[in-house]
Amino acid sequence: MNLDKVSLDKEIILNATEEVIRRFGPDKANITDVAKLLKVSHAALYRYYNGKTDLWNAVTERWLTSLHAHSNDILKEDNPADIKLFHLLEDFAEAKRRSSVNDPEMFANYIKLAHSSMEVIEKSIEEGIDRIKEIIVQGISEGIFFTESPGQAARTVYFATGVFINPNTFEDPNRKQNIESVINLLIRGLKNPNK
């Protein structure tokens, strides 16, 4: 990354931080490495971020947004709510597994952050629940889903599928079948007016 005479902004700093995390891993990377890569003093970075925790949170938040960008496309699909919900939940389950394979350092950074700073993680969870709720509300208007509390139903659906974002499940040979079974069970439950 060559930044001779290029002014700093948050995006440039985030890009450099991701590069540093990928190069050194989340345990060894530090704010001084970012400053060296950008050819600035580490104090220059403090004009944009209040230290390593703030910067690493911003990087993880941006990474999570990118990781779940496809879910925005799913929300725009011209499909009935049950099909759309299946696609969304399947994408939620697979996005982090794909990242653990394709971008292991950033995934490790996410895991590390999940243990130390819940604010970014909780925001991502709420965004996921909101996406599910949007589809459930669509399903209610289509007469496909029946629930008196779309928000609570969305929260339940999110947490019922949350097991599949656990790295311990990534190598399970029955993973795809298990994901589909759980999602189909949840969708059947939303369709049952006698709950």
Structure at a glance:
This protein has helices at residues 10-24, 31-38, 42-45, 52-67, 69-75, 81-102, 104-116, 118-141, 150-161, 175-191. With 195 residues, the protein is an all-alpha fold. It is elongated.
Topology summary:
Elements (H helix, E strand, L loop, with lengths): L9 H15 L6 H8 L3 H4 L6 H16 L1 H7 L5 H22 L1 H13 L1 H24 L8 H12 L13 H17 L4
Helix pairs in contact: 1-2, 1-4, 1-7, 4-7, 5-6, 6-7, 6-8, 6-10, 8-9, 9-10
Number of strands: 0
Gross morphology: elongated
Helix content: over 70%
Class by alpha and beta content: mainly alpha
Element string (H = helix, E = strand): HHHHHHHHHH
Mean pLDDT over the residues: 89
- What oligomerization state is this entry in? single chain
> DSSP strand (E) fraction?
under 5%
N- and C-termini, Cα separation = 57 Å
Quick one: biggest sheet? none
Radius of gyration: 20 Å
Which regions have little confidence, pLDDT < 50, spanning 5+ residues? Answer: 1-5
Count of DSSP H/I helices = 10
